[in-house]
Amino acid sequence: MTKAYASLKQAARLKPLEIERRAVGPNDVQIHIDYCGVCHSDIHMVNNDWGISEYPMVPGHEIVGHVVSVGSDVTKFQEGQRVGVGYFVDSCRTCEPCKAHMEQYCENGFKMTHGSETDDPGGLTFGGYSDAIIVDEGYVLNVPENLDMANAAPLLCAGITAYSPLRNWDVKRGDIVGVIGLGGLGHMGVKMAHAMGAHVVMITTSQGKAVDAKSLGADDVLISTDQAAMAAWAGKFDFLLNTIPVAHDIVPYMSLLKLDATMCLVGIVDELESVHTAPLLFGRRSVAGSLIGGTKEAQEMLDFCGEHNITADIELIKMNEINDAHKRMEKGDVKYRFVIDLKTI
Amino acid sequence: MTKAYASLKQAARLKPLEIERRAVGPNDVQIHIDYCGVCHSDIHMVNNDWGISEYPMVPGHEIVGHVVSVGSDVTKFQEGQRVGVGYFVDSCRTCEPCKAHMEQYCENGFKMTHGSETDDPGGLTFGGYSDAIIVDEGYVLNVPENLDMANAAPLLCAGITAYSPLRNWDVKRGDIVGVIGLGGLGHMGVKMAHAMGAHVVMITTSQGKAVDAKSLGADDVLISTDQAAMAAWAGKFDFLLNTIPVAHDIVPYMSLLKLDATMCLVGIVDELESVHTAPLLFGRRSVAGSLIGGTKEAQEMLDFCGEHNITADIELIKMNEINDAHKRMEKGDVKYRFVIDLKTI
């Protein structure tokens, strides 16, 4: 064990914290964190909106950095390699989802990158608003050489959260795909669905986002408050990726789907505003949810992004700007992801 | 054209009505109606609960009878044959769903068996609370010889409404299938899922329905108000057929589904009580809807029922008992479907 110091004053709204970092075990990768994306869920966790937060807390699960050292049994990584860590750092490894590398659906509960209990009594995992982390190699990902590291950080959560449902519902060339909401998740969804060959329609309440959406790869923009436009697009969509992070009425969007098509929710863990069943029955439509993505799929996503040169559009901040960043995110004031430069810690 | 008389005093709460019946066209089948099932939606239509009712109205769309005469171009039916008619009697025949014989999802709107406009100005279709109907042969089905006619009537709506989603979501031998709610739809769902080889669990609020459910083919009964039992079944179901006809909270049921599994709503066209997204995201689960079934699938369903000797459990009533029957249905007081004996008209 080594004594380590983490500057968390701004991040966790606490005085500087003495934490004991675990030794690098045989399967561990010790990572120097270069950049960490700021996810909307960090704010929920900091505020304990979901009632699962444990303090002290170091948020951050869009981690990219480079390998400092590896344990004796590590085979996939070596010193200096560019790596990433996402929302979880361990899982049971024995249930069916884990065996299929869909650890996000681990039946025994995955270990979150921040705020989960460790094997040490009273210990907690600490996340990426920090300059170092030690993670089992099974939960570390390789970041392609051609991607800018700071811009790649949001791929580890926003990226995989958009990618996984696009793949699961088999989005392919020629499909008409709607991305609802243009934020961190939505802008990744537009870029990825476009790269998969879909005809991408940005669906937003805001006319002001139309130009941006097209520059990101959207072929069309549909203003959801324009009832004539919504009617014209009714029944046209093969898939809808709904990234709205707050309670809303899903019914107007459901009517956009073709027979047998699905709208997948990725942005909201909350009560929906209202759900009338008519658009489900009349069209055999589905509403589903999807949660981040597993390690195998996340590596596939990173390789896909390397191949198509996809990263997030970001605003790079210093560590001591994090509280302002959280406040601006609550107002939707970011294009499209804050990323912390951990040199500034 | 022939002048015909339909005794609708009780059925439509109107004085006896003079209706003009259309002539038997070249593709028409003239049917003498022997029995007609009483569907919950008849009550909604009589009361104009959905705001789409047209009066005068003759409800009834679970029609069985025998062929009286056929038009010159009819090839599939002949005089004396046992036939059935369900929820619709025509559709556009040109859209993709129609061409796939999924006329229930006709993009131009199918013609309902009762209450839709006819080609004659001001004309309306009249349904099965009557002793005669004329229907294009494309919308007439063959009723297997071994099935009791009165008990077969509810197959034309309750039966196909349960069968279609069980087939669409590929229920097969060994699957664990939950049927939620034991009414007209639910009891058909139990019998059909059982005949498909599934392990069928009846999910009900009522301990009193346990014995009945098992006699219908359920392997287990899960009382949905028993939280320990619900927890024990969490994550176990391959498919849920939700037949509850009133607003309710779907979240406790969603947690019963396996990863990637679907709950299909067939009983409710209304606002759901509340929908929290957590069980959708944590398990990539779907909630879907399904509407009756198409002509091809309905014939397949009738043949399946012939093969497995499946019909509805019914209470046979006289025409003049229909108002009491509607009242009893509103209290859930029927095992499991009223069927009108049209000899009593």
> What is the CA-based Rg of chain A, rounded?
20 Å
Strand content of chain A: 25-35%
Largest sheet of chain A: 7 strands, mixed
* CATH fold-level label of the largest domain in chain A: Quinone Oxidoreductase, Chain A, domain 1
Mean pLDDT of chain A: 92
Q: What string, H for helix and E for strand, traces the elements of chain A in order?
A: EEEHEEEHEEEHHEHEHEHEHEHEHEHE
Task: Write structural notes for this entry.
2 copies of one chain form a homodimer. In chain A, helix 4 crosses helix 5 and helix 4 (158-168) crosses helix 10. Chain A has 11 helices and 17 strands. The model of chain A is unreliable at 1-14 (pLDDT under 50). Chain A starts with a strand and ends with a strand. By secondary structure, chain A is α/β, with parallel strands linked by helices. Chains A and B meet through strand 14, helix 9 and strand 15 of A and strand 14, helix 9 and strand 15 of B. Strand 15 of chain A pairs antiparallel with strand 15 (286-289) of chain B, so a sheet runs across the interface.
